[in-house]
Amino acid sequence: MGVGMKEENCIFCKIAGGEIPSKTLYEDEEFRVILDLGPAAKGHALILPKSHYADLYELPEDTAAHAMILAKRMAARMTDRLHCDGFNLMQNNGETAGQTVFHFHMHLIPRYQDDGQKIGWKPGEPSAEELEEIRNKIIG
Ligand code: 5GP
Ligand code: ZN
Question: If DSSP codes are grouped into helix, strand and coil, which group holds residue 83?
């Protein structure tokens, strides 16, 4: 693994492959973990597969499984070293969902009581009928 498909003009392919230098926290055959250049909080990092997959839909299941195991290990390590108070795992797919770099990546965001960030959403108030309708759409 690790020497799969690259995309010519993809910045994360170049970073993951070491062509463009980055603040690397971890590297193996399949992944590179780097510090985000526009961090939401101190220590914000990104898990990048070395092969190019645009998003979660393209990601093979075994790579997805390995990415989650790596996320868990990085979260433990970073929490131990950074003494953060909480931790967000984030992953955006598509422009509408906030994705800006179209090479799959997982955000590792250490959170601190005074970090002043707000990552969340405005909760809706669906009726029982609406919940049933959406459930049927998904499972029906
Ligand atoms: P997205 O919005 O696609 O989920 O996240 C893209 C992330 O990549 C952003 O948090 C942004 O700060 C980060 N980013 C964009 N370009 C670079 C870069 O060249 N180097 C690093 N280290 N991070 C980048
Ligand atoms: Zn790529």
Answer: coil
